[in-house]
Specification:
Blueprint lengths: L1 H60 L5 H43 L1 H9 L4 H27 L7 H20 L8
Helix pairs in contact: 1-2, 1-3, 1-4, 2-4, 2-5, 3-4, 4-5
């Protein structure tokens, strides 16, 4: 009975950790997603402003509108580009810091090991967590590309690269130390 009690207590502790870990991870994922979506909205508005500016240029070239309309459209486009660049920098900083925080939560909580202990070595939660991290890194990679396209100085990637490395190493270590086959659960 003593062994059964200890296993039950360990299981309850694991469930309590999971009940706080999963909402924390979900919050971080959704915050990263929200920040990327906010940037994409601003970038989309920038494109729309440039399209209107090109239409104004075309109207000016065909004498359908005057120079003041062209100047107003140009100024609006340039303001949109400035806003987009500001949002890009802000989004980069916020999302890379969030990914650093996410890596710290996963590593500090031993999330992959915990998921594999509860679900087996092929844990869906562990795989899903790693897959979501990779998707987030790809989204943030798009931001890096936007820096290049905009001709801006490339941002510092140290936090992002460290977070990616920590998550990959943590997953590999959990997988390596996992000895219980998934079918045993």
């Amino acid at each position: 009975h003593s062994g059964d009690s200890k296993r039950a207590i360990r299981a309850m502790k694991g469930q309590r950790r999971e009940h706080t870990l999963l909402p924390t991870l979900d919050h971080l994922w959704w915050t990263v997603r929200s920040k990327l979506d906010e940037y994409l909205d601003v970038a989309d508005e920038e494109i729309q402003r440039f399209e209107r500016s090109f239409a104004a240029l075309s109207s000016y070239e065909t004498c359908k509108s005057g120079f003041p309309n062209l100047l107003e459209s140009y100024a609006t486009s340039m303001a949109g580009m400035t806003d987009s660049h500001r949002q890009l920098r802000s989004t980069w900083t916020e999302t890379t810091n969030l990914m650093g925080e996410l890596a710290a939560v996963v590593v500090d909580s031993d999330a992959f090991t915990q998921f594999m202990a509860e679900e087996g070595c092929e844990s869906e939660l562990a795989q899903q967590t790693l897959k979501q991290a990779r998707w987030a890194f790809q989204g943030i990679g798009m931001l890096f590309h936007r820096y290049r396209v905009a001709g801006l100085e490339e941002p510092d990637t140290a936090v992002l690269l460290d977070a990616a490395k920590r998550l990959e190493e943590e997953y590999k270590a959990a997988k390596k130390s996992c000895s219980e086959p998934a079918s045993a659960h």
